[in-house]
Amino acid sequence: MWEKLKRIWSQSPGISSRSTRASSQTQRTQAQTQQTKPKTQEARTEKQKIRLAIENEILKRKASRFCFFKHKQPAETYVVGWIKTSDGYRYELKVLLGPKFPDQMPRLFVVSPHKAPKYGGGFINNAGLSHKFHTRGKGPNGCVEICHCKESSWDPSRNILSVLIKGVIWCEAHRKYVKTGETIAHFCDELKDQVPDLNNY
Predict the structure, then answer these.
(1) Model pLDDT, residue 70
(2) Cβ of 198: how many Cβ atoms within 10 Å?
(3) What topology does CATH give the domain 46-200?
(4) Which of 46, 74, 90, 179 is most buried by its number of CB atoms within 10 A?
(5) What are the φ/ψ torsions at residue 157 (nearest 5 degrees)?
(6) Residue segments in the chain with a per-residue pLDDT below the cut of 50
(7) 183 forms bridges with which residues in the sheet?
C-alpha cells in the first residue's frame, strides 16, 4: 500500500496537450470575474482524493472507532472518534485535515472533555504553547490542541493513523499527569515507543 501511495504522490501533475495561452481579452475577463466574485476554497486535487481514500481504508481497518467526514469545503474535512484510556476515562479526538493535507500538517484537538484538568486544579486549555503539556494552544471553542509533531518536521508520508496514535498516547499521559503531577511531556517520552492498537480503545 505504501509503495502505491509513494508512486501516486511522486507523479507530477498531468499537463494538457492543448495550448495554455489565452487571449488577453479572456485574461481580462477572468481577472474581472475574480474581482467581483467572492473567493472560494479550491477543490481537492485528484492526488488528494486518492490519498484520502487510502487514509479512510486504513482507519476502517486500524481505528474503526474513528470516522471520516468529508466536507464540500476542504478546510472542514476531519476525522473524529472516541477512545477510552486504560483507566476507563473517555476522550473524543478530532483531526482537522485542512485544504493542503497531506503537504500541510493536520491539527489534533481534544474535543471532549472540553476542559482538560490540571494536576492540583485549573485547566490545561489556558496553557497555550507548552512543551510541558505537549500543547499548541487553544483550538475551536477553546478546546486543547495537542502538539503531535513540529510543523517544520511534518512529513507528508505520515498518515492520519499515526496522528491519532500520538493523540492516544497524549490521553494516556494526561491521565497519569492528573494523578501524579509529573509532566505530560515526561509520560509521552515514556510511552512514545508504544504503538497502541486503536481498535482496543
Answers:
(1) 74
(2) 19
(3) Ubiquitin Conjugating Enzyme (3.10.110)
(4) 74
(5) -80, -15
(6) 5-6, 8-40
(7) none
Structural domain boundaries in the chain: 46-200
Q: State the SS3 of the chain.
A: CHHHHHHHHHCCCCCCCCCCCCCHHHHHHHHHHHHHCCCCCCCCCHHHHHHHHHHHHHHHHHCCCEEEECCCCHHHCEEEEEEECCCCCEEEEEEECCCCCCCCCCEEEEEECCCCECCCCCEHHHHCEECCCCEEEECHHHCEEECCCCHHHCCCCCCHHHHHHHHHHHHHHHHHHHHHCCCHHHHHHHHCCCCCCHHHC
The predicted pLDDT at position 75 comes to 76
- pLDDT (tens digit, 9 = 90+) per residue, 48-62? 999 999 999 999 999
Q: Which three cell numbers stand for residue 80?
A: 473524529
What pLDDT is recorded for position 111? 95
Does the pTM surpass 0.85? The reply is: no
Predicted confidence at residue 34, as pLDDT, reads 47
